[in-house]
Structure formats: structure tokens, C-alpha cells
Write a structure and sequence with these properties.
Order of helices and strands: HHHHEEEHEEEHHEEEEEEEHHE
Distance between the termini: 43 Å
Helix content: 10-25%
Radius of gyration: 18 Å
Oligomer: single chain
Mean pLDDT: 89
Number of helices: 9
Number of strands: 14
């Protein structure tokens, strides 16, 4: 399985899939593809901001916004940035300048490797992480987890391995290998790092606050972005989207880890989450 996946041109294939689901095909084929996707994955299209007819292609439907009352923001200061499943979580040790995150039991990866060269990870000593997996049927926009100020963002060009259960269990350093965009925020005296990780058939990852960063583009290496002035975002504000499903890694500093619901930081079972659901006390 691994050998076959290694040989597949995953980035090129994902760009092709992204292009094909956005294209308007003859004989209304694009609408048929959209409808078959919705039926197969049992997507709740009634939550979409507009009637289904206004999303003629699967690509347009996939990045849909929701009706204003489709999700309620919890009063907690920290909220889930996405719909999905909480698959992995844990606390970092105090004083650990290079904490490790758990990919699966027995497989870990370093935060420094996830963030790339030159990214200071010391603010996250004593903190925590939450890994949130977005399945194809989920809503795929990413929202600010707290009222905060965006400090910087980074695109790290990489591969596009699948992020399904088999891949997570068998491919070491999966999230370090894959294409990703990082957004670092400061809020209430604490730091939050939100990592959007690409995967096979993720046509693109885009962010709402700049058009200078895009996942699965033709760029290589690392591309950094810093706002030219104060850039405030409100909890629940749209900050990006996956143009097919993937994973968000939410990294919290010690300030936020102490305020996060401890029941969410313990255990190993997968838990459903909804955008706006309270993560803190």
C-alpha cells in the first residue's frame, strides 16, 4: 500500500481533482457529480448559505458558507475552529522547548519539524494540542478559535499523502511531510497556532486574510507572511478553507492549555466537534 501511494503523483493528482470539480462540464455533468457526492457522503446541504442551485459544481459547493444560524458560538473563550472529529490530543511538558505531538500511539512528531526552520516554538512549552480531522461530509471552512490578533502565517510546500486512518497509523511524520499553512495568533495573553494540513485530493488550502499564501500551489520551500498592520479576528470569523477534506492541528500555549476542558485533553477515543463548540472552561 505504502509503495503504491509513494509512486502516485499525489500533488499533481490533487491539482487535477481540484480543477475538475470546479469545471463546468458539458451536459450538466458537474451538477450530477455534485449531487452524487452529496448523496454518497450524506452531506446536509440544507445548512448551506444559499440554495443548492447556486452551487452548480462540487468545487463551489465544497467551500460553501453556512447559514448564519447553522452554528452557535459557545460563550467559552476558545471554540472549535471546524466541524470534524477530535482524533488526537495531549499536554506538553513544562520547560520543553521542542514538544512532540502524537500522531498515533507509538508515533510522534516534533512541533519544530511541523512548523519548519526558524519558527520559535518555545511559547508552547507546557501547552497542549488538539488534532481535528475533517471527513468529506464535513463543512470545510476554518474559523478563528478565539478573539485574537494574527501575528504571522506560513506556507510550507510538501507532499499530499492521505490523512485517513490507515495513513495516520502507518506513515511516520505524516503531518510534517504534507503541504500545510500555519497561522499564529495572540489572544488574552496566550498564543494559539492553527495548522491546516493538506492531503491527497485537497485541491487547495486558502486563507481569507491574504491571497499571498495558498496550499498545494507550484511554490516550493517555505513562504512567510506578516500583516502590514494590526490584524484582529473575532472568534468564529472565517479565516480559511480546504477545497477538499483534511486535518487541522490546533496548538495551544500553557495559558490556553490550563483553560481548555480537561475532558477534551484526555483519552484516545475519537470525539465529534462542531465549529463554535466550546473548548475552554
Amino acid at each position: 500500500m505504502y509503495s503504491l501511494l509513494y509512486l502516485v503523483p499525489k500533488n499533481w493528482l490533487s491539482r487535477f481533482v481540484g480543477w475538475s470539480v470546479r469545471r463546468r462540464w458539458p451536459l450538466g455533468l458537474h451538477t450530477s457529480i455534485r449531487d452524487k457526492f452529496i448523496r454518497h457522503f450524506k452531506v446536509d446541504a440544507s445548512e448551506a448559505e444559499y440554495p443548492l442551485a447556486q452551487y452548480p459544481t462540487l468545487g463551489e459547493f465544497f467551500i460553501r458558507r453556512l447559514k448564519t444560524d447553522a452554528r452557535l458560538l459557545d460563550s467559552a473563550a476558545l471554540a472549535s475552529p471546524v466541524d470534524g472529529a477530535l482524533t488526537r490530543r495531549g499536554r506538553f511538558g513544562n520547560g520543553d522547548a521542542n514538544p512532540s505531538l502524537t500522531q498515533i500511539k507509538g508515533i510522534q512528531y516534533a512541533l519544530k519539524d511541523f512548523c519548519g526552520d526558524g519558527w520559535d516554538t518555545t511559547p508552547y512549552a507546557g501547552g497542549a494540542f488538539l488534532t481535528l480531522y475533517l471527513a468529506p461530509f464535513n463543512y470545510h471552512r476554518i474559523h478563528a478559535p478565539a478573539d485574537s490578533r494574527i501575528l504571522r502565517a506560513r506556507h510550507i510546500a510538501g507532499a499530499l499523502w492521505p490523512v485517513n486512518a490507515w495513513s495516520v497509523e502507518n506513515i511516520r511524520d505524516l503531518f510534517v511531510r504534507n503541504d500545510r499553512i500555519l497561522v499564529e495568533m495572540e489572544s488574552e495573553g496566550g498564543r494559539i497556532l492553527l495548522g491546516m494540513v493538506g492531503a491527497t485530493n485537497v485541491g487547495r488550502i486558502t486563507v481569507s486574510f491574504t491571497n499571498e499564501l495558498m496550499g498545494n500551489s507550484n511554490s516550493s520551500g517555505i513562504r512567510d507572511w506578516v500583516p502590514s498592520g494590526e490584524l484582529q479576528v473575532s472568534k468564529g470569523q472565517d479565516i480559511g478553507c480546504f477545497e477538499m477534506g483534511s486535518t487541522v492541528v490546533l496548538v495551544l500555549d500553557a495559558y490556553w492549555a490550563e483553560r481548555t476542558r480537561q475532558d477534551l485533553l484526555q483519552g484516545h477515543e475519537s470525539l465529534p466537534v462542531r465549529m463554535g463548540m466550546g473548548l475552554s472552561l
